[in-house]
């Protein structure tokens, strides 16, 4: 089977809401079959029902990527359904907010498990298969947070720096292959992520955020073009550029000030 209806298969983690969901919709519209991962079974069922209307195969698996054997379960699921993953989008990510000394240990370790361990393990599982097939595409979702240190969100910023560096390294390793590698680095986006992470923003600040739909549209276009680092939004591009020219000591002070609110 491999490619149902002779069309490619995209695996998207964290595909029930926010950026992952909007990306899933764009793939569905382009008739790419989908494997969708998230924890909430009911929400997965709803998204499957909605996206199946595009005449594609939609496979869903409820997994908590913070759990140890979740990536093995994902591989088993793909194999049992006789699928091959042509496009991999490591989008699922969680945040935490506050001084490291005050955040629960369990929360920080879960963040590392989802944002770093699972992303690495899933890539490590599916990349060799893509290499065997001689083609494939991987997009890892980082953040503009990847470019600097983030006091009051120390673990989250550091986890996204890992994702960016990991993805850049892979891009170089795979330069002479037909495997495309991209790192999506959005600035703050209007999704449930902010609230779930404990980030408080006033109404005016919330209005200025990009929507997940806008982010996904840019990501989809630039990923298809094979762009390595994708930063949606002019303001975010300027912030990253400015960050290159100011000392790190100043950048982290500014971020602490912003995170103190
Ligand atoms: N929103 C922002 O401001 C922002 C900015 C920059 C970068 N990002 C990054 O963009 C990515 C997507 O963020 P988003 O804003 O779209 O988030 P979101 O709206 O909170 O959606 C997160 C998705 O991931 C799934 N998920 C969460 N924890 C999971 C787990 N342990 N195992 C499996 N699936 C899990 C969620 O479904 P379940 O809850 O059902 O599992 C949901 O489908 C993340 O990597 C985030 O770090 C977000």
Automatic annotation (TrEMBL):
<dbReference type="InterPro" id="IPR002347">
    <property type="entry name" value="SDR_fam"/>
</dbReference>
<keyword id="KW-0560">Oxidoreductase</keyword>
<protein>
    <submittedName>
        <fullName>SDR family oxidoreductase</fullName>
    </submittedName>
</protein>
<dbReference type="Pfam" id="PF00106">
    <property type="entry name" value="adh_short"/>
</dbReference>
<dbReference type="InterPro" id="IPR036291">
    <property type="entry name" value="NAD(P)-bd_dom_sf"/>
</dbReference>
<dbReference type="GO" id="GO:0016491">
    <property type="term" value="F:oxidoreductase activity"/>
</dbReference>
<comment type="similarity">
    <text>Belongs to the short-chain dehydrogenases/reductases (SDR) family.</text>
</comment>
<dbReference type="GO" id="GO:0016020">
    <property type="term" value="C:membrane"/>
</dbReference>
């Amino acid at each position: 089977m491999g490619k149902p209806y002779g069309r490619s298969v995209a695996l998207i983690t964290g595909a029930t809401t926010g950026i992952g969901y909007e990306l899933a919709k764009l793939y569905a519209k382009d008739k790419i079959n989908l494997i969708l991962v998230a924890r909430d079974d009911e929400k997965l069922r709803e998204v499957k029902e909605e996206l199946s209307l595009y005449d594609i195969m939609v496979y869903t698996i409820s997994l908590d990527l913070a759990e140890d054997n979740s990536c093995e379960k994902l591989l088993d699921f793909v194999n049992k359904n006789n699928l091959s993953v042509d496009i991999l989008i490591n989008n699922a990510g969680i945040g935490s907010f506050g001084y490291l000394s005050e955040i629960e240990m369990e929360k920080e370790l879960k963040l590392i498990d989802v944002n770093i361990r699972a992303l690495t393990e899933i890539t490590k599982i599916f990349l060799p298969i893509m290499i065997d097939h001689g083609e494939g595409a991987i997009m890892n979702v980082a953040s503009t947070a990847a470019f600097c240190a983030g006091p009051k969100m120390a673990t989250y910023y550091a986890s996204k720096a890992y994702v960016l560096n990991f993805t850049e390294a892979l891009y170089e390793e795979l330069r002479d292959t037909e495997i495309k590698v991209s790192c999506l680095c959005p600035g703050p986006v209007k999704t449930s992520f902010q609230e779930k992470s404990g980030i408080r923003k006033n109404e005016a600040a919330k209005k200025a955020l990009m929507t997940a739909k806008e982010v996904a549209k840019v990501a989809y276009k630039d990923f298809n073009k094979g762009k390595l680092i994708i930063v949606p939004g002019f303001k975010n591009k300027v912030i990253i550029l400015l960050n290159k020219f100011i000392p790190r000591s100043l950048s982290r002070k500014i971020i602490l000030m912003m995170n103190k609110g």
